[in-house]
Amino acid sequence: MIKERLVDALAPLLPLAKEEINSLLEFPPNDELGDLALPCFVLAKKLKQSPGQIAAALADTIVHPLFRAEAAGPYLNFKLNRSAFGAELLERTQSATFWRPNIGEGKRVVIDMSSPNIAKPFGIGHLRSTMIGNAIYRMLSEVGYDTVNVNHLGDWGTQFGKMIVAYLKWGDASAIRASDNPTKDYLALYVKFHEEAKRHPELEDEAREWFRKLETGDSLATELWRDMIGESLNQFNKLYERLGVTFDHVLGESFYNDKMEPVIQKLRSQGLLEESDGALVVRLDEFGMPPCLLVKSNGTSIYATRDLATAIYRRDVMGASQLLYVVGGEQSLHFEQVFRVLGKMDDTWEERCKHVPFGLMRMEGQKMSTRKGKVLFLEDVLNEAVAQARRIIEEKNPALRDKEAAAEAIGIGAVVFGDLKNTRTLDVDFSLADVLNFEGETGPYLQYTYARMASIQRKAAAGMAELQNDGDETESGGDQPAASTTPLSPDSLPANGPLTGSRSHLAEHDHVWPLLKQISFYPARLALAAERHEPSVLARYLLELAQSFNRFYHHVKVLDGSDSEQSFKLGLVLAASKALGQGLALLGVRTLEEL
Ligand code: ARG
Questions:
Q1: Where do the DSSP E strands lie in 357-422?
Q2: Which listed site, 29, 121, 563, 594, has its alpha carbon 20 to 30 Å from 208?
Q3: Strand 292-295 and strand 279-282: pairing?
Q4: Contacts with 344 (C-beta within 8 Å, 6 or more apart), sequence order
């Protein structure tokens, strides 16, 4: 918002487009240099003057109620009228358009996310697709896109042939039915298949044959397949519920079984299909890529065939103008191939599809492989996180109401935020101790900060201003120990004494201004995170916001001073809690009113 106002003021004066001015303006590293700065180097060439002359001339020309301009060598520095800006900001935060900038303009985006493989455990890798996808889905909706998310379940393919073989040879139907987590039993069968197949390679042929039967509608194959799907889905749904994730559509790969033939026909009629060792492929030599295999020599489809049919369905039936695929980076080649084949069929596909990749997640240093059975079940990770959260709460705040719900929210919030705060393409080393640390850059730190904001607002509402002493002791709740004795508290900075001065000077205060500034960044950061499909941009913003808030909280008495001062400070707390609360909700992290 600060930048936008300045860009508007500068645009009529400069030979540059608004976007260019926007990207030139910088926030100087320290406030002494002004609140914003415009380096004048690029203007020098256009205006045929030195940057210094330009800065000086502009400084003389600009008259604005919110800014004062000063030249400093080649830079034009802007000093904000912080009080006017603060008043305007609080006013703007009253309106819904501040919180939900409309950049999507109703464009329909279909987001492929989560998409675990049936009859395999829901591992930590699919957590990333689920939570990164969920955040992207919610952020895009928030900024005005018409979003549709789809769980593209891995419920088709040769692995079901393998599962059927293993089940018929070694499976125990009644044990599986009685098991409290049948996906673990199915995993054991899958692992056994791969062990046995090393010694008896003919098992692989049997598996291919069973998948062919499944694809051509064999009744036994279909029945066994349906059982596996049902058990896995029950298991997955429990996880989705705990994570607070919902889907507009759950359409597995099997849904496209009758939609692949027309695609193959079209490719054939366009002359794009070639035979290669009995299989059918589309060549991609011109892109320096290996050919995309679409029909195997025994006539069965593969993953890529199903993805072609899926993309076409999403465009033609679901009306997608953009297709996003939130899938691990190890599938980059697959998506490039699929997108190239689509592009060869019809050039309107260009720009429409986007793979949104993410890195590997290592749990305390390990990488997992399903085939060898070395799997970390997401369910077990969540349970462990919740158990640890429960212990922390029990130790630090045994008087808290509804500790069980709090432990669930904290434990899961810690895991989710611990994932989302990382730039998505990077590999993540995940450690429960780190993500649960209330004093680190964590979900629990933000949840705690949010609860603190809520507590101040409750106190204000209850008109308890007169009970307030120094800092933490009363504002963080009478039922809570003081900050100096509770390690749950994120910061323990000393209180700075009462803030004096009129409301108009409040915005100038060293610990008020940074908070004001952070709140004003909310819409731009949200928009950036949404457009880049990068939840970490929002996650890191929330950390900065919480840090400014906690500094403000330790140095400034909110429930103190004249009525107008108090209402200004409360307005700030309300806006900060809205930004933090909404931001966390968009990331899929639950907030608590008390902690
Ligand atoms: N089921 C796949 C896997 O776990 C991910 C599917 C991603 N989506 C897609 N349209 N290919 O590897």
A1: 361-363
A2: 121
A3: antiparallel
A4: 270, 272, 282
Distance in angstroms (rounded) separating the CA atoms of residues 174 and 279:
40
Report d(CA 517, CA 508) in Å as an integer.
11
Contact 417, 443 (CB under 8 A): yes
- 439-490: pLDDT as tens digits: 999 999 999 999 999 999 999 998 754 544 444 444 443 333 333 334 344 4
Could you report how far apart the first and last alpha carbons of the chain are, in Å? 32
How far is the centre of ligand 1, averaged over its atoms, from the C-alpha of 519 (Å)? 38
CATH of domain 2-80: 3.30.1360.70
Three-state SS at 472: helix
Q: Best substitution site from 110, 128, 327, 332 to test ligand 1's pocket, by max atoms within 8 Å of Cβ?
A: 327
**Coil, strand or helix at 107:** coil
108-363 shares its CATH topology with 379-587: no
Enumerate residues 6+ apart whose C-beta is below 8 A from 558.
456, 460, 475, 566, 569, 570, 573
**CATH 3.40.50.720 at 379-587, yes or no:** no
Pocket of ligand 1 (CB under 6 A): 112, 115-117, 152, 154, 307, 310, 325, 327
Tokens of residue 379, six digits: 């369910």
β-strands 249-250, 146-151: how paired?
Answer: parallel
pTM over 0.95: no
Classify 369 as helix, strand or coil: strand
- Return the closest-CA partner of residue 275 out of 239, 299, 242: 299
The domain 108-363: what is its CATH number? 3.40.50.620
Residue type, 271: G
Give residue-wise pLDDT tens across range 225-274.
998 898 889 889 999 999 999 999 999 999 999 999 999 999 999 999 99
Give nearest CA residue, ligand 1 atom 6: 115
ipTM of the complex: 0.99
